[in-house]
Amino acid sequence: MPRTRIKICGLTRAEDMDAALAAGADAVGLVFYSPSPRAVTSDLARSLVQRIPPFVTRVGLFVNETPLRINAILDEVELDLLQFHGDETDAYCRQFGRPFIKAARVRPELDLVEFARSFPAARALLLDAYVEGYGGGGKTFDWTLIPPGLPLPLILSGGLQPENVADAVRGLRPWAVDVSSGVESAKGIKDAARIAAFVAAVKDADA
Questions:
Q1: How far apart are CA 179 and CA 176, in angstroms?
Q2: Rounded mean pLDDT of 161-167?
Q3: How, if at all, do strands 189-190 and 184-186 pair?
Q4: Is 18 labeled as catalytic in the residue annotation?
Q5: Integer Cα distance of 156 and 30 in angstroms
Q6: To bridge 92 with a disulfide, which of 78, 88, 127, 157 should be the other Cys (CB 3.0-4.6 Å)?
Q7: What is the DSSP letter of 12?
């Protein structure tokens, strides 16, 4: 089996970015959704991105944002991958000329296979918990709702933390896992020890 990739999302401070990189994160996420407690400005994002070495993917997260603002951010911040968490269509996501992943808010009535097929240009499908508003709210969802044979690589999100991510990796074998609140000491404030423990747990499950 290929090793599970790890994304640490919702970084807002230089020391948290450094902790994620030191722990061995494959990707880091910056939130450009103003209602989020983890939202960053273009200026802050630019300073955080400058700390990222080669071969770590720089991800920008957006929710039902205007194309004008996304293009303005892309002009100011070096991002490798876009992550869309709202009601965007495949055509909307493609217009920025960057690789993208699409999030699905998992609930029993959502056909995940059909959802994935409706985003043929996406590089992966990120599965998150369904809660009011956007984002998983630190909640897990029923992993048995994930069907076999998804047509896109699976990124598992939603309520992951050092204590449960190994079980998730062993049971589901996702392409990648994505964590935010599960490695925090407060909203938007990451805990370096929990980041390291999360990465260690994923590597242990892979082994």
A1: 10
A2: 97
A3: antiparallel
A4: no
A5: 17
A6: 88
A7: -
